Amino acid sequence: MPEIEEGFVPITPRDTVVGYEIVEEFGLIQASGVTGRGVGKEFFANIWDKLGGNNRSWENSFEQVMNRAYDNASKKVLENTDGGNAIVNARFDFGSTQRDMPYCVLTGQAVRVEKRE
Q1: Which is nearest to 91 in space by CA: 30, 33, 34, 35?
Q2: CB under 8 Å to 107, separation ≥6 — which residues?
Q3: Residue-wise pLDDT tens digits, 79-102
Q4: Residues 21-44: pLDDT tens digits?
Q5: Which of 10, 50, 80, 91 is deepest in the core (most CB within 10 A)?
Q6: To which protein family does this belong (predicted)?
Q7: CA 45/CA 60 separation, integer angstroms
């Protein structure tokens, strides 16, 4: 198993990072990502939905908010813990606001892991 690169924070739904041992726990970490949708995208997305097509615009929006939540959680671990370098037991929750703005909330356990010998 390779070493974890500086600045990269593995995030996993498992209770451990494969090949690593948890040596310190820092508690719950939560981060979110949200994005607005343009009027044009919404207009064409509604037409496409009525035609029964696959709405790639929505798929891209949810991918964007998931990546934002991932980035925000990584930053929180690196900046707000003393040596945290991973998130375990991660859960991604998706939804949309009343104004059809997609969002993602990532919740997990911030930990410090070290490579097993």
Answers
A1: 30
A2: 28, 29, 30, 90, 91, 93
A3: 999 999 999 999 999 988 877 788
A4: 999 999 999 999 987 765 555 555
A5: 10
A6: Belongs to the UPF0145 family.
A7: 12
